[in-house]
Amino acid sequence: MSDPVCPLCLRPIPPGVPQSLHHLVPKLKGGKGGPTVLLHHICHREIHATLTEAELARDYATPEALRAHPRLAKFAAWVAKRPPSFASRTTGGRRKR
Q1: I want to staple 39 with a disulfide (CB 3.0 to 4.6 A). Which of 43, 57, 71, 97 is the partner?
Q2: Which domain of life is it from (predicted)?
Q3: CA dist 64 to 8, 38, 60, 69, Å?
């Protein structure tokens, strides 16, 4: 069986690599129990460092929309050149909810 693929950077997520589930609609905005996607932890942190919960719920509730965001597209292109196990601190802190 092949490894799952991160929907943001499109790299495989091998076992043992830091990973997390992302609610496509944030739980605080009605997404509890809704669809989730498995992401590299670094990709998940970048999403939340870039977008507010309201922006995620309103405009970025699909992997395609996330990849189309200018900052996330730039991040995905950058991180795609790294190995799947790459982990680093993201710039900036978490955005306000």
Answers
A1: 43
A2: Bacteria
A3: 8, 14, 8, 9
Burial 55-67 (b: 16+ CB within 10 A, else e): ebbeebbebeebb
- Residue 41's domain comprises 19-79
- Does residue 10 fall inside a structural domain? no
Note whether residue 1 is domain-resident. no
Using only the alpha carbons of the chain, give its radius of gyration. Answer: 13
What's the structural domain count of the chain? 1
* pTM assigned to the model: 0.87
28-54: per-residue pLDDT in tens? 999 899 999 999 999 999 999 999 999
DSSP per-residue string spanning 28-91? GGTTTTS-EEEEEHHHHHHHHHHS-HHHHHHH--SHHHHHHSHHHHHHHHHHTTS-TT---PPS
Residue 89 counted as domain residue: no
